[in-house]
Structures are given as structure tokens and as C-alpha cells.
């Protein structure tokens, strides 16, 4: 918000705007992973976590999300039960 | 030592064929033995840009399907005998040639020529995969516009996935006056974004169009800025260390002076 106000005041030249927008969108583009790879990551996460917890595989979600100007792998994994430590 | 270079871009219409024609003629002018391969099957154009459209007997698909020897399908340039074109078919589609075919062809041509330049079709589909298969070096052509730069980045990623790590960049259709007023990205901006070694910046120049009209690539015209820019790229490909040129801007007064012959 503050950012966009600043830009109006400075009336940034379009060449700079282009550069900034490209740098942002390319972070997303470069991070985008094919659905097959995403599926594999998901399956492997399930394997690891299932060693320690009982999780709800059907309700679990993982995705790549943009947070400010970086990309995060965000996982939401409902836990149904925790196994005893051995 | 010969080099196989693919000229590619992702986005269509940014100047791949123009670049291929100019680098081909430019290298031939410097005495190199050069063969150009048009891989834009179904949308043949390199023949027109080189003024060779009336001399075509056979094409790439005829060679791949074994109907003729490579030698018979090559079209010799009218002015530069050491420049040959292997045109593609205007009736077949991209599925007529596969990556293994092109790789074998490049390896054959490598024995005889100093440079094999491959004009790649737009896109990242089969035609692209075929065009890059036999290449040692990829030249990515882009323009200082958001969509062309984004597509160039995508292509650079695809080249990396195909283990083509020797990648160079040409920025085409720069408008110096717009760069000066801050309304167009310049070479440094694009370098920051793509992080690929830039070997040329070519201005937007009406002589590119008028020379294409005649089938005589602009690199032969040292009076034109684009022609000099292409000649410089040719030198850099041959390993020379050539500084980037400053573009002369044609302001109102320059145009007026020229009009009055001052
Ligand atoms: N530096 C330049 N100045 C002015 N016009 C240019 C310049 N470079 C290319 N053009 C023009 O842009 C158009 C597209 O060029 P070209 O056919 O070389 O692009 P391409 O990338 O091969 O296209 P395609 O993706 O369709 O194969 C042509 O009309 C050409 O004359
Ligand atoms: Mg083309």
C-alpha cells in the first residue's frame, strides 16, 4: 500500500516498472513445479511424517506461494493422532 | 573447430530469422564456411530473407527422409559462395523432423563447415526440442519488452533442462530514445533480470525491413546502425573482444540536418 502510494508520487518511469515487475514474476515462474513433481513431494512428505504422526492424507494441502518477494512451500497437514515416542 | 549454434527465443516475431540471416551472411563475409538450417517447418522464411526463394529444389524433410543427399538440398548464396542454406518444407509440419534426425544432420555438417546456424521456430514444443538437439551454443533473442523477456527466461530454463549450458543473449529492436527517457529497459536492466552473457544489442532500424524486402541482410550495409551491430556480434562469435556501440540518436535536428544535406 505504502509502496503503491510512493510510486504514484514519484511517477516511476515505465522502464523501471517493467524491470521490477519482471523480477517479481520470474521468481514465480522459476519456482513453478510441474504437477507430477508436486505429487511426488507430497507423497514423500506423507511418508516421513507418518513415521511420527497419524495424518489426514485426504485433507492435506501443499503449494508454492508468494510471500512478499520470495517463494514459500506451504503445507497444511491435519494431524489426527500422535504416536508414542519409542 | 566448428560450432553449431541455435537461434531461439520462445516468443514469436522477435527477430530469430533476421538474426540467423545476418549472422550467416556476416560470418560468410569474414570468410567462414557457413550453413544455415531453417527448422521452422511449415513456415519457411529464411530463404526469403536471403533472397534464395527461387533456387530451392529440395528441403530439410527430403534430406531427413532420405530422398536426397544433403549436398543436393543445400542452396548456395548468390554473392557468398561459402554460405549455404538448407531450407525447410513449406508443406510438412514440425513432426516431420525429430531431435535425433537433426543431431545426426548437424554432426554430418560439422565436418565441412565452420559454423552451422539453426533458425528455431517460436514456442517450446516439439519444434524447439528438435532445433536445439544438435547445438553446442544457444543464442536467445529477446526484445526490451516484458513479454519477450519473460519468454526468454522460460527458454533459458528449458535449455538448462536439456543440458544446453552455453547460452548467449541478443537484445533486438532497442529504441535508444526510449531508453534515454527511461521508458524502455536497457541492456543492464535485462542483464540483471536474465543473468546471461549478452553478445549484442541491435537497434530498431527501418533498414532491417528495407533490406529484408530486397533479400539482402542488413549486415552488408555498414551505413546502418543495425548492420554495424550485427557485424559486431559476428566478431564476438569469432572470439573478438568488441565493445558495445553507442547508438546515435536521430533527434529532430539531426533529421532536419540530414534532410538538407548538412
Ligand atoms: N532490429 C530490427 N529493426 C526493425 N525491424 C526488425 C528488427 N528485427 C526484426 N525486425 C522485424 O520484425 C519482424 C519479425 O522478425 P523475424 O521474422 O526475424 O522474427 P522471428 O523471431 O524469426 O519470427 P517467428 O517467431 O515468426 O519465426 C520482421 O518483420 C522483421 O523485419
Ligand atoms: Mg522466424
Explain what the structure shows.
The complex is a heterodimer of chains A (86) and B (262). Chain A is α+β, with helices and mostly antiparallel strands and 86 residues long. Chain A has one domain. Chain A has three helices and four strands, in the order αααββββ. In chain A, the strands form two sheets. In chain A, strands 1-4 form a two-stranded antiparallel sheet. The longest helix of chain A has 18 residues, at 14-31. The radius of gyration of chain A is 20 Å and the shape is elongated. The model of chain A has no long low-confidence stretch (mean pLDDT 82). Helices cover 40% and strands 16% of the residues of chain B. Chain B is built from twelve helices and eight strands. Chain B has one domain (3-259): 3-Layer(aba) Sandwich (Rossmann fold), CATH 3.40.50.300. In chain B, α5 runs parallel beside α6. Chain B has helices spanning 16-29, 46-49, 60-64, 70-73, 99-110, 126-132, 146-161, 176-180, 187-194, 206-214, 225-237, 252-259, and strands at 3-8, 34-38, 75-76, 83-86, 115-119, 137-142, 167-174, 197-203. The longest helix of chain B is centred in the middle third of the chain and has 16 residues, at 146-161. An eight-stranded mixed beta sheet of chain B has the order 3-4-2-5-1-6-7-8, sandwiched between helices. With 262 residues, chain B is of the alpha/beta class. Chain A binds chain B through residues 13-16, 18-19, 21-23, 25-26, 29-30, and chain B through 144-146, 149-150, 153-154, 157, 178-179, 181-186, 189, 192-193. Residues 9, 12-18, 40, 122, 172-173, 202, 204-205, 208-209, 212, 226 of chain B line the site of adenosine-5'-triphosphate.
